[in-house]
Amino acid sequence: MSTHATGAAPDPLTDPHRVTAARRLLDEVGGHAAFDRLSALAARLVGAGHAKVTMFTDHDVVVGGHGLPAGTVGGPALLTGALSALTVRLGGPLNVPDAGLDERLVDLPAVTSGQVRAYLGAPLVAASGHVVGVLAVYDARPRDWSDDAAELLEQLSASVVAELELSAARSAVGASLARLDIALEASDIGTWERDLRTGTVYWDERNAAIFGVEGPVEHAGDDIELMAQIHPDDHATVAAAMRAAVEGTGEFVTEMRVLRADGEVRWAVSRGRVVRDPAGEPVRFLGTTVDVTDARHAADRRLASLQRTTAIAEVAAALSAATRIDQLAHITLRGAEVLGASTGALAVFDPGSGALQLHMGRRLMDVVQVAAAEAGVDAPPPDGLEIPLDDQLPTQWVARHGERVLLGDPVEAAARFPAMAELTRVLEAHALAALPLRVEGRLLGSFVAVWSTEHRFDDDDVEVLEALTAQIALSVSRLQADAARDAAVAEMAAANARLELLAETGRVLSGSLDITEQIGALTQLVVPALGDWCWVVVADERGRLRQLASAHRDPAREGQLDDYVRAMTAGMTEHAAARVVTRTGRPLVLPEVDAGYVERALPDPDARAALARLDPRSGIVVPLVARGQTLGALGLYTTGDRGRHTEVELDTALELGRRAGVALQQARLFGQQRQLAETLQRSMLTAPPAPDHCEIAVRYVPAAAGAEVGGDWYDAFVQPDGATMLVIGDVVGHDSGAAAAMGQLRGLLRGIGHHTGGTPAEVLCGLDRASAGLDLDTMATALVARLEQDEPGLALAEARVRWSSAGHPPPVLIDGHGRVTLLDCGEPDLLLGVEPDRPRTDRVATIERGGTLLLYTDGLVERRDRDLDAGISELCRVLAGLTDLPLQQLCDRLLELMYLPDTEDDVALLAVRLHPQDLPRPAEAGPQRVPPGIEPAPDVVPGAGRDLA
């Protein structure tokens, strides 16, 4: 059963710590005859036939015994191994008088074979307390072992352990001494000893070798000869360290320079300890010496490398914060100073022009500035100097060819680059290193470090220079990329601003039909976007320039600018920019507004003084062009520190000029078309007649937006029977087609109404059928009213109005007492052009003398923010306040109150007022006017109003 089974105690025989202790002693034994003697002694003293020593490691091993071959070491523990193992497990003596009677042992091979009947074993206990083996005696016959025999065997087992421990200790000491000697030999550590009573110093061979002499060496007497082999500067340090060790802690450590016999100076570190006698008095110094020259040099190299690495890291950190390439020369000089360089420079290709720009370090710049001052020439600019792309000097050569150049002295430099002789004299460049700036195969320029003394370049120097160059190249690449990105962002921002300006220009130039308002808004846009102040002048039909608009970024100076532009347009000569640009159609750039130009352009001193108050520094004047014709000019001027206009600003101003020119031309065309349209419209709207005691007023107002002729019309004529026909109409649409349809409908209605003498409904039916028959293909609203009077009406001082509506807004009646009534008797008939054969209806109302009938089109009452019904209600409300006005004034005032300036529809208005017939026609009505063939009514009609008397 395993000793590790649940509930079982661990088996001491397999205890790893016990096994390790046994193995340690066994490994140091080798061949040892003492174990044979002890085994024989044990057998003789107890009278046993056999005795042996068994060590139990990972397997039992016999290390000696009586009755075995002499010097037996190793091998299995034979048949008694099991009994010895039992002794180890017991941890104490095992006394077996007769194994054949012992149940624990009776079946063991050693017992059954008859070799072992009596057995006495004592455990071997090591200093660690572990049982590492067994000393046993045994016999082939049963016997009783006495207590003395057991005690004697235990004492002998202690002797065996002592022999083992002593053998192991001797072996370990020998091995340690051998290892120490090997370590001292390998590490070149010498040992020394000083007798403090006699002053004698002893060096072993290694210690003597450190001082460059054959050894071992013994110094007797004073220390003069000994100290002569130590650098004089280190004498005091060595003496102080020894004194402190003797008087204090007893520990001695010092570093010194050794003066070897061959003249070489080496560094050594000596360590020692004071040995004292039983009374505590120092009697001896024991110590070691080690040569640390190579380690010190390696440390110096590591320190220098660390310093260089730190310098490169500092330079890299500073380079990462640089924002301009001209800063890099000053920053990288810090790294070159680690190698002793006095100054340096960078030569970088400009990405745009390809020119090589030299950026000098601060000290080099100071030297160059002094040299330039002594030579009487201009000092180089601080932001870089363009240098020729030749091979005369290392800076350009390396930048062009991409190969490193190292020049350790002026002779070498002048031999390769003759032009370096002058630089050596002027700049004290006695040594120079030039390395290419390269990133991902792209050659960006060169880095130059300059020494004021001769300098030999070793591998470490080259390594540092290349590391610096790599950092510089990355920074140059980054700054160039940043500059390219910033330029692209700035260009994009400028392009966006230009597009926004042009988009806003399109908005303001399309937001109004008033060209003065448009150009005025344009000037407010371009200032201050493109200049500090501006003006716009345009040419009239005679070519004379007149002011259209101006703007100043300071609103308080608008008056000054306006005064100047008026003076400029009134008195400028042919040399003035506005005239030159208008005449040639090409832009004019004024980098400086100088006095000579001003005198040529403005002969009037007051005009020049007005210009001087505006303080122009530079300007551009661009033409206002449309369809190859120059209509005027736009002038943009800068003041103060704004600087001259850029090419982008000039291009933007040219585009603005083109757009303003198009807007100006469109405004002119619109004005011409609008005037023509209104003239045409009014030519078709003839003056109304003035029959009998009727006063007729008509109004036509074209739409505020657009230049097309509208479709609204009015008409009034006298039928052959003397009745007066009143017509108001509105053709669907607001274009030239509507105007043409209006003219045709008006003519047809007028002819039908005069020829037939029919009622309004009959006239509209005839007009609808005629339009269909003539294929006019148009729709319109219309209202026709007929003023009729018979004898009863004459006597009552009233007249009838008979009307018919083709989808038109209802007429409004104002009686003689000022009451306003809407003549609306149900739904109107269909529009003209919908169902020509559908009958129409006449409606009749009475008008007293002194009353007013108003006909109108929907443009008067209908708007985007209100419907027709609301507009008609507003019309009635407004008319109620105008009833006392003469008819002409009533119409004008009504339009003022009802018609908005920006209305998109035209308006036609017809109002008729019936004056009393028993009185002369009032003066405001004007004289009676009737067509030929109609008998005029008398000034006073006999019998009129008699039924009212």
UniProtKB/TrEMBL annotation:
<dbReference type="InterPro" id="IPR001932">
    <property type="entry name" value="PPM-type_phosphatase-like_dom"/>
</dbReference>
<dbReference type="InterPro" id="IPR036457">
    <property type="entry name" value="PPM-type-like_dom_sf"/>
</dbReference>
<dbReference type="Pfam" id="PF13185">
    <property type="entry name" value="GAF_2"/>
</dbReference>
<protein>
    <submittedName>
        <fullName>PAS domain S-box-containing protein</fullName>
    </submittedName>
</protein>
<dbReference type="InterPro" id="IPR029016">
    <property type="entry name" value="GAF-like_dom_sf"/>
</dbReference>
<dbReference type="Pfam" id="PF01590">
    <property type="entry name" value="GAF"/>
</dbReference>
<feature type="domain" description="PAC">
    <location>
        <begin position="252"/>
        <end position="304"/>
    </location>
</feature>
<dbReference type="Pfam" id="PF08447">
    <property type="entry name" value="PAS_3"/>
</dbReference>
<feature type="region of interest" description="Disordered">
    <location>
        <begin position="920"/>
        <end position="949"/>
    </location>
</feature>
<keyword id="KW-0378">Hydrolase</keyword>
<dbReference type="InterPro" id="IPR035965">
    <property type="entry name" value="PAS-like_dom_sf"/>
</dbReference>
<dbReference type="InterPro" id="IPR000014">
    <property type="entry name" value="PAS"/>
</dbReference>
<dbReference type="GO" id="GO:0016791">
    <property type="term" value="F:phosphatase activity"/>
</dbReference>
<dbReference type="InterPro" id="IPR003018">
    <property type="entry name" value="GAF"/>
</dbReference>
<dbReference type="Pfam" id="PF07228">
    <property type="entry name" value="SpoIIE"/>
</dbReference>
<dbReference type="InterPro" id="IPR000700">
    <property type="entry name" value="PAS-assoc_C"/>
</dbReference>
<dbReference type="InterPro" id="IPR052016">
    <property type="entry name" value="Bact_Sigma-Reg"/>
</dbReference>
<dbReference type="InterPro" id="IPR001610">
    <property type="entry name" value="PAC"/>
</dbReference>
<dbReference type="InterPro" id="IPR013655">
    <property type="entry name" value="PAS_fold_3"/>
</dbReference>
